[in-house]
Design goal:
The protein has 151 residues and is mostly helical. Helices cover 84% and strands 0% of the residues.
Amino acid sequence: MFDQILDIAALVCLVLAALLSAAAGVGLLRFTDSLSRLHAATKPQIFGLLLVIAAVAIDERSFGVLLSLVPVFVFQALTAPTAAHMVGRAAYRTGQLDGDTILVDELGPAVERATARAAEQDREQARAAAARDRELDALDALNESDQPPQV
């Protein structure tokens, strides 16, 4: 009797994981911009993986199997949101998003400040390179004038 209950619990976990995967697929197809699609892809993925791991652990009825699957979940839980964050930032910076769906743009001022700071650093580096080139040209001219003419 207890084995049947565990089998049903594992089946429920797998069915819920499948529903989450289907919802993620529908979200990827239906949402209009990259940020919304990332949300639809990453949120169900982590919870679905947790449900699949729970189903496998329940089906195997082994604590060792559960312990061997925990690192899979931990690494996925650490890498999926980080990757989604980086893809989201790239999509934001390249303008591949729907401006109508963003209610508050908290990243806009920070991106403008970073862009202005990078442009100022580029200008400073260009000025320093130009000054270095002028110094080198002056040294070359000085060295040429100090040398006796060659016959």
